[in-house]
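Chains adopt folds. We examine one example:
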Amino acid sequence: MITRRCWLVLVDLSGEVRFRRLVMVQKPQPAATLACIASVLEEMRAFLGTQWQKVLGIGVVMPGPFGVEGISSVGPTTLNGWEQVDIEAELATISGLPVTLENDATVAAIGERFHGTARHLNSFIYLYIGTGLGAGIFTDGHIYTGHAHNAGEIGHIVVEPGGRDCYCGNQGCLERYVSLQAAYEFCGLDPMRALPEDLLQIEPARFTAWIENVTTPLRQAINILESVFDAEAVIIGGMMPAPLLEQMVQRLPPLYQSVRGRYLNDMRLKIGMTGSDTAALGAAALPIFDEFNPKFQVLMK
């Protein structure tokens, strides 16, 4: 049975979290999960009282890709059963508020731009290590989402042809090596039940061995991203526990030569926010984007 976490946070315009709830969902399915969300929204409404009318909207973050046959709902890194659900319409009906949906990596990048390491960066790539692996992309102060909001699905770049089978149908996809799912498998944890903090309990040498196994494909990915986007920095964050993420980043240098090769490693590669707030704070910023600039551009300048 798959265990998923659903965080619901209420954030004011300064980024301060005013209300927070964690809902643990076993094998999340739309009806049960939406009912849980509706219950927590009622808690929020009661907490705010008359101030509820000041709420700008709801930002929702889900793992991508969206609307891609054979990828969007296949495997443990996706939310099976949600592909036919119009989550924006469902939550708008429940709450009476405007709803904006984005993938987890893009939203985490937005959170990093508002609250983290990227506050002073105009062009950066945020590598989001979740159950899978994705990238949030900022270029010249603008968030780049692509034609169908699927830009940054770097987890499905093939880094080892003929390598491990991926749920998308390819072999050797990056997220089969670099992701929480891959770490759970390598470290002997049950991927269907494991949570990120469980990695802190395993033998340190086992996790170190996993890091050694993934440094080469991760360096390849960073090299590709730097060469394509000429970003000021690649920021690595997500749901990996902070002490373990620090170990990963420390072992990545030397990076491959690229258009950013003349810069020091600590300028090219940075550690981002980790834990539940990584995507939650970015999701909470989405209604602000919609309210003040529907194209998500002016506010990011």
